[in-house]
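Throughout our pipeline, every protein is held as a single compact record rather than as scattered files. The remainder of this section carries one protein's record, kept here as part of the documentation.

===
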Amino acid sequence: MTTFLGRGVLADLIVQAPYRRARSGATQNQDLRGVSYEINGFMNWTTRKTERSVQNWTHRSSAFGLKGQVFGPKDIHLVFDGDRQGTGAINNYPDRNDNHGAVGVNFLMCDSSVKWVKGGTNYLIAYEKSQDEDRRSP
């Protein structure tokens, strides 16, 4: 147990498991302990995702021609499959080290639905709709 925000929680719940598979038997515990999901709590690095902010988000960035389009809870994810470390790892992009490899990721949307999003351009567009970071490539 550890303390997080004044509450007692299991330490593994506040740590992202760094690897998909253990690097060796000796490092298995440190490589695999923790959660396998990440929380994306902000849009455009500045706006916290709240019930109000996700209802009618007007996209600010121009990637994929999305600027000015309005997105809602079904388009904006809150939780997604976590990244893993390893050779060739790309932050917040499906790669061979991640839960489902480069094939894609699960998104938990703000309307409480879950979406499977294929890797590649499909992922980039879905990520950009949700995060509004002007991201155009891995």
About this structure: The beta strands are 2-4, 7-9, 37-39, 42-43, 47-48, 57-58, 70-71, 77-81, 104-109, 114-118. Residues 36-131 form one domain.
